[in-house]
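Sample intake sheet
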Amino acid sequence: MPKLRPMLLAILLASGGLLASPPGAALAATEICDQFGSLRVDGDRYIVQNNRWGASTTQCISVEGASFRVTRADHNNSTSGPPAAYPSIYAGCHYGNCSSGSGLPLRVNQFGDPRATYHISTPNAGEWNASLDLWYDANPFPAGQNFGAEVMIWASHRGRPQPIGTRVGTVNLEGGSWDVWFGNIGWNVISYVRTTPSNTMTNFSVKAFTNDAVARGKIDTNWYLTSVQAGFEPWIGGAGLAVNQFAFTVNGGGTGSTPIRGQGSNRCLDLAGWGSGDGTNIILWDCHGRWNQQWRRDGNAFVNPQSGKCLDVRGAGTADGSEVWLWSCIPGGIAQQWLHRADGTLFNPHSGKCLDAAGWGTGNGTELIIWTCGNGQSNQIWRLG
């Protein structure tokens, strides 16, 4: 839809000395209630926007790192008309408000392998869609509205709202079946509605959806992808909608980094004692967002950008209790492959085991190990961002 404005122990032994990871204040949530209020996050890589463009009713979002939650939404729009808002997080430029280091704009015929990740939570109330919004224009830096095309990827929805235009077919893309809709409201709107809704889209191909729209004659390959946005269009209500993780990379893998936060502890994976060398212990510590708690997805590996080293199972161990530490990255290394599964676990395929906070620990200094995957154990559930 159109967007009318911008929218283990706390001390651990190491090499005969005592090293402690200094405590840091947890990231404080920021509330945004201004109609078009926004906040730069993750080192300016993304921008979160309230973007209440289609209603006068109150909407507020709470932003913490590269994630946000709708905390208030008093909307009651007709479901036969436009939505009330598009609270969202994006990479690129939107009405002249540009994030840093996104690699956008990018001409369609120069695409490498742009990919995005979108993990959400949704309430059993209200009428809304959960969607990614891809914008294209003949101008690489449009000052306002993009007039080329808008690709909307409806991962989930609730209630009566339908996409703009009419349904024109069905297509299988990125492991899902999608109803395809098309309409024109001054620009082409191509909507892909997942026939089986999902709250998790991990490392999916932006190019796959773009290529389908190109094949349908709705996107010119000389146009530019100007932004990749992830959020929700609420018509009625909307409180409780949340983006828990968003990432975009121009050529797969990418450079964006996030913390990895444990569900049971609400603490982050931390390089003990601010270490950056091979064999540095990885522990839980209060989340503070600084470099020793940042991890960048590179394929199925997690790289700490400052050290350039990877989250690794020591000695490629496969037994319960094998230590997880920092080690030089090995392309395709079996000890460094981690699948972030839909249940929130980080699964190492070589061992068949999950990343685990040892002994159900939740305190600062708790060691990280691998252990047989449980059934929803909170010490094995991790959130990126």
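Comment: The chain has two domains: 26-249, 257-384. Confidence is low (pLDDT under 50) at residues 2-26.
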